[in-house]
Amino acid sequence: MKDKAEVLAGAGDNTRLAHIGNDPMDFHGFVNPPVVHASTVLFPNAATMENRAQKYSYGTRGTPTTDALCDAINELEGSAGTILVPSGLAAVTVPFLAFLSAGDHALIVDSVYSPTRHFCDTMLKRLGVTVEYYDPAIGAGIARLMRPNTKLVHTEAPGSNTFEMQDIRAIADAAHKGGAVVSIDNTWATPLYFKPLDHGVDISIHAATKYPAGHSDILMGTVSANAKHWPQLWEGNLAMGICGSPDDSYQLLRGLRTMGVRLERHQESALRLAEWLEGRDEVVRVLHPALPSFPGHDLWKRDFKGASGIFSIVLEGESPDRFRAKAHAFLDALRIFGLGYSWGGYESLAVHVNLSDRTICKAPKEGPVLRLQIGLEDVTDIRADIERGLAAARAA
């Protein structure tokens, strides 16, 4: 299969997604890998058992099913290794625990996924790690925040809910000069639209629950590392005994096959709707990095190959005491959109964003922020549903 690997190396995204991760000839020609359910693995003799001198030794250390998924993710990320964990949040917390110790200092972007902030403010604090939040627009200026004990700089581009962009290369270069590991939550873009390790990042994190799975029925996270940091990530994960299940890995690998074509549809529909919403009087701002009006658009255009299907709008709120009523009126009028906290699936979702935990990137003052996940429905129907929401908000 060497010839096939060489062809795939130069192939397009959808071609690669259709073929990476496993060799059908390893499994009698079946195009999908088998689902191997495993805990105990037997050894042929005591010496092999003592030295674990065979490919598989216990279910937590991998199976043909989980390895097929890890191989596929490594192909997409350009990484030395990938671990599978049970959720997107675990994909953040496991590397934090693997690379941070008591007495360390960590720099976390202020527009971070809010459960990540909760973990930092509770568990990391209790374990003796000092956490400092920084402005996503800081760029190379992050060097001013580096301390002798700064061991990790965490990024997220674009930022959670408000979509601030970051100059990842400038941040990574400054962090590395100070001896810190650089991680990123790259869930929004996926490795199809942004490859973090090519921009200086050491650890790439994904809530694979979202676009890789794509069908709102799988919980899983992936963490991929470059060659320098892979051994420590792998050892940390083994020490905690955290792993992804074979059934979910199989479903996720199947979802990967169509991720490229789904992302194209998500991107196209979301951008059409974002452009339309910019012209609505009820909307003060549209927070979408692919819009030329967005403050971080130039960074997005420089570094990213595309945009996914999630963005936010800031409604005209009249006065702060009206924000909640306006947001709830909008949400309750929707019929196509579901009200739910996830995204990346086939269906459109909406949520009133809570930004009360921010310390630097404070909530917009003009009105409530509504996050819209644009699904695979017809744009005409999605637009009509948003119009229902806008009419209800206007009347509230």
UniProtKB/TrEMBL annotation:
The keyword Lyase applies. Gene3D superfamilies: Aspartate Aminotransferase, domain 1, Type I PLP-dependent aspartate aminotransferase-like (Major domain). Its EC number is 4.4.1.13. Coiled coil: none annotated. It holds the Pfam family Cys_Met_Meta_PP. The keyword Transcription does not apply. It catalyses: L,L-cystathionine + H2O = L-homocysteine + pyruvate + NH4(+). Its cofactor is pyridoxal 5'-phosphate. One of its GO terms (molecular function) is cysteine-S-conjugate beta-lyase activity. Signal peptide: none annotated. It comes from the Bacteria. Keywords: Lyase, Pyridoxal phosphate. InterPro entries: Cys/Met-Metab_PyrdxlP-dep_enz, Cys_b_lyase_bac, PyrdxlP-dep_Trfase, PyrdxlP-dep_Trfase_major, PyrdxlP-dep_Trfase_small. Belongs to the trans-sulfuration enzymes family. This is Cystathionine beta-lyase. It comes from Mycoplana ramosa (Mycoplana bullata).
